[in-house]
Amino acid sequence: VRREPADQVAAYVDALRDGRRPPRFPTDADESGGALRAAAALNAALPGADAPRREFVEGLRQRLAQAAVPTSSAGSVTRRRLLGQLALPAVAALVGAAAATAVRSVLDHLLARGGDAADTQLVPDGVGHWTAVIPLISLSPGQPRYFASGAIQGFLIRQGADVSAVSAICTHLGCVLRNGKLPGRLDCPCHGASFTLLGEPLNPEYTTPLPGLRTRVNDGTVEVFVADV
Amino acid sequence: VGAEAGRIEHADERGRACPPAAGLVGDWEAAYRENLGWVYRLIYGRVGNRPDAEDLTEDVFLRALPRLRLAGAPEALRAYLTATSRAVVADYWRRHYDADDLPSELAFAAEGGASATAVEDNTRRANRLLALLPDHYRRVLELRFLSGCSVRETAKTLQISVSHAKVLQHRALRRAAELGARELP
Description:
Low-confidence stretches of chain A: 71-118
Strand order of the largest sheet of chain A: 2-3-4-8
Strand order of the largest sheet of chain B: 1-2
Number of helices of chain A: 6
Oligomer: heterodimer
Number of helices of chain B: 9
Helix content of chain A: 25-40%
Shape of chain B: elongated
Strand content of chain B: under 5%
Structural class of chain B: mainly alpha
């Protein structure tokens, strides 16, 4: 049942007023798109509401310090995350060719098989390592969260205490997927392919599932098994 | 940081340490401290909540880190951080609310122009938005955003039904967006 726009906007405002991450939903520009932006601006009206938390300022400083020291192992994790945020061609130019080749060969394998890849892992044993991606508490249940680490881009999905991950690269022609217009879906902006959060294809024209990525939670931090770079 | 600064500072003939030239490694922590606050406030004023503001601010600074490490003109860094913040915010709205059809001149995304590095105070910006509205619209938004009333409390204060209060709030926000697009820089 589609909620009325006024109800959706009310729920959005309630979340803002409570300091929570607001619900995501597609809007159309005339109906609610501008209204949400106005609400966001108004929620910064009270003096001091827009001051950063001291813990955040210090935490981010520490994460940047790690990223600024590429020789330490902790630093290299963040540096890879940094690389992942660059445009794809830049990443391809910067990361080691070996890892890129390993990932590509798995993708080629998947494409050749055409389907039934729900149990296939993008990064097999022996060519990868565990890397910290994000604190578990920053994942909202059922809300896919994009991440990039080295040559790997994926979506993390939290369901209760479990976290799973699928590749964020469309198995059709390699575009980066994004959160779908409908909840519980990942959509390709290029040619219209859609996938469930488990990576299963929803569009009959594109039948290759998204490969999965292994995940684990280590001391409150979500880790993903990514390709060696 | 100290070691890096030591690498680039060298004594000239008179025995003074040369200041780092543009393009060399500078004190990124100082640049971070100087810029974190206004970048966060700029983003907060456009997403309206702490969890998203923190995530997007982190994105901006991770992208900007190589530039933070360059000792260059502070104005150039501010301009870069402003542009990156706006790009990150625009992407946020597009990804989560499919708002990419919004007209680009909509004030909340496109304000700035020539004064791209001047960030307006969020309280003043919000009050300016409220001042544009007719009384009945301004009242409902003041109750919700300034007085902290729930929809139910707002309805009671205005002596209308809860569903009417929601519709009124929706219309008031839409009107604020329309007027803001036209009136704000």
